[in-house]
TrEMBL record:
InterPro entries the UniProt entry points to: 4-hydroxybenzoyl-CoA_TE (IPR050563), HotDog_dom_sf (IPR029069)
GO molecular function (one): fatty acyl-CoA hydrolase activity
Family matches, as Gene3D superfamilies: Hotdog Thioesterase (3.10.129.10)
Protein name: Acyl-CoA thioesterase
Cross-referenced CDD domains: 4HBT
Amino acid sequence: MLVNNNLHRPLEVVLAIPVKTYDIDFMGIVSNIVYIRWLEDLRLKFLDEHWQINQQIEQGYTPILAGTEIEYKRPIKIMDQVIGRLWLSNLGRLKWTVQAEILSNNELAAVASQKGGFVSLQNNRLIPIPEELQNKYLQCKQGFQKI
């Protein structure tokens, strides 16, 4: 799995992530399952900043997650300073992809990719990506291309 090394990361969010005692496994490192929770925290921050979940629900749809891939690069320990970054790397007609990286003490500790879409709350069926989100994504990409 490759992380987008390009500095252009559409709609990127950054989150300081505290390592809790309950995140640590018997080996003294952050358990693999904790990374899934951290990705959820990053996606929630993304929604807070770029596409509020309450507005989606009011409009009759909600995001769903279809898959997650994580590649662990180095272990994270209790006293490490952890930062998560997540950005929208692809937006198709029906599906979105976000990429993320987790840094520990300014070193890459993990990279991840998640795919999903939006479903109607009436029938639980996949719907096209909302036009407003498509426009926001395209504006962000076009702004980078002008630089």
